Give the backbone structure.
Amino acid sequence: MRFSGKTAIVTGGASGIGKATAELLASEGAQVLVWDLQGELPSVDLTDENSIRKALIPVERVDILVYSAGVQTYGTAVSTPDEVWQRTLEVNLNGAFRVCRAVLPKMPPGGAITLVGSVQSVAAVANSCAYVTSKHALLGLTRSIALDYAAAGIRCNCLCPGAIDTPMLRWSASLTPDPEATLAACARVHPLNRLGKADEIARAAAFLSSDDASFITGTAFMADGGAMVPVGGAAFQDSGTAQAGKGNQ
Ligand SMILES: NC(=O)c1ccc[n+]([C@@H]2O[C@H](COP(=O)([O-])OP(=O)(O)OC[C@H]3O[C@@H](n4cnc5c(N)ncnc54)[C@H](O)[C@@H]3O)[C@@H](O)[C@H]2O)c1
């Protein structure tokens, strides 16, 4: 019961990674407030400052914030329409800024913020201009908050998952001609050779939110099945110089 007596806010907590995180924190004793547009108790629109402020009025203290809300969008610098660019930045980045700004004054020493970024916080996937930009910027926000609030005893980390089997990933795959083949390609991106599970990211989020991570702040904390390790990606490992002399082993 690492979180008994603690109050946690989990944004995007009605689905996928956020849902698994909210359930795990609650199972370890936290009082969890789920802020999401959908779900049994649709509560907060993170693109709306008033909605955030209203939800926070009855909350005296916030020990843990996990910002897992996000939208996935596609397009290049030329093909991304204004509306898509703005919506992506609004939910993935500006919402995180707004929630942190509102929550930090209510966060005591020992508090922990985890912003759910992505491997796309530190690298890019093609045709994902707005999403990549939003997730890179989220790492900047993470580092900024980590520095500014270290003296207050508050930590802030950016949790960077690889491809995780959630409604978001299934929706992305559904936009391709062969969704199952796309999911299989996503699995191969990871040296562990499978998709991650929401529960695995939830456990990383719970770790970062806990006192077990008391000396960890400002990090891009990878939970990516090793995806960012291979130079040139998985395809290069299969077909490039990594194959040299393989028959000798
Ligand atoms: N699934 C993956 O492969 C993957 C990989 C890396 C990073 N991520 C990131 O992890 C986070 C969670 O992703 P997921 O896969 O669980 O997605 P998901 O779509 O299952 O859940 C996202 C949740 O955010 C909520 N949300 C969206 N806009 C909102 C708004 N304006 N106000 C309130 N809530 C809003 C949605 O209603 C939804 O419940 C996202 O930030 C995503 O970018 C996901």
Notes: The mean pLDDT is 96. The first strand starts at residue 7 and ends at 11. The first helix runs from residue 16 to 27. The two ends are 48 Å apart (CA to CA).
